[in-house]
Amino acid sequence: MPGSLRHQRVFVAGHKGMVGSAIVGRLKDLGYENILTASRDELDLLDQAGVRAWFAEHKPDQVYIAAAKVGGIHANNTLPAEFIYQNLMIEANLVHAAHQSDVQKLLFLGSSCIYPKFAEQPMREDALLTGTLEPTNEPYALAKIAGIKLCESYNRQYGRDYRSVMPTNLYGPNDNFHPENSHVIPALLRRFHEAVQNDAAEVVIWGSGKPMREFLHVDDMAAASVHVMELDDATYQAHSEPMLSHINVGTGVDCTIRELAETVARVTGYQGKLVFDSSKPDGTPRKLMDVSRLKSLGWEASISLEDGLRDAYQWYLDNHEVARMA
Q1: 25 among the known binding-site residues?
Q2: Which of 146, 24, 159, 145 is nearest to 105 (CA)?
Q3: Is 216 known as a binding-site position?
Q4: Is the dihedral of CA 163, 169, 173, 175 positive or negative?
Q5: Active-site position among 32, 64, 140, 171
Q6: Where along the sequence does the record put site: Important for catalytic activity (predicted)?
Q7: For 261-320, how does the pLDDT look when each residue is reduced to its tens digit (9 = 90+)?
Q8: Known catalytic residue: 140?
Q9: CA atoms within 13 A on the CB side of 198
Q10: Helix 257-268 crosses helix 305-319 at what angle (to 10 degrees)?
């Protein structure tokens, strides 16, 4: 199956983002010969007619939906309308255009925030829609849940093979390093780097430091995504349940935010004091993925957190002048 897929036309939506660029790199490493991409100037994913016309012209055989409006707690909390509207439109336009163009294979990338705030840990795929979501990112989570259900619905009604992967917290090269709108790892890497440069006596970290999080390097995410897409239908279906099209992607290991901050301090060489601001929101108490389904399908993560952080920090050092800061 993989050999035949690698000759097909593969569209990676969101190829300039952290995940999309890693998927493009993984596809190239595996010998994919015909990778299609489109910048925002070339294709506005919020424009339904434009997306439909692009598909009609370029006729992809496979689609990876890595395009999304993303951000950390602060961005989700202050821009809820943008997060729900843009993510709903992007996924709806792409999934429907793929179907209209007779694309049989599609992979939708979601997020672990789809699960209830107090879901049993580690979170299994069947925890979806069993409880209340974390309020700070509920609009984004609802959009991602809708994306899963879009894929399931087109599979049910039209016999499509549209799969979904739900990654845990991602980080790595091409991340967004804005100090407030980014996710926790790039925000901390930048903050600690600047603290070293300025010889700061202390670094302030949002929240109590007690919440537990799982982190996955984006290169592992890309490898998992292509692995899931390449699985033949019989293998994939043998490890699937009816009406359960999504697969968790993570390491199966978590740490506290305090432990993460201490590791970032070590990686960046910061030796000052760490101060935790408990007046800022913590978000979900714990988010650990049950990745047993993905392991049963033959894949598991290989990049340790400290090694991954060193790679991400080196990328920032090499690219901080052009890194995304918004």
Answers
A1: no
A2: 159
A3: no
A4: positive
A5: 140
A6: 111, 113
A7: 999 999 999 999 999 999 988 877 888 999 999 999 999 999 999 999 999 999 999 998
A8: yes
A9: 10
A10: 50
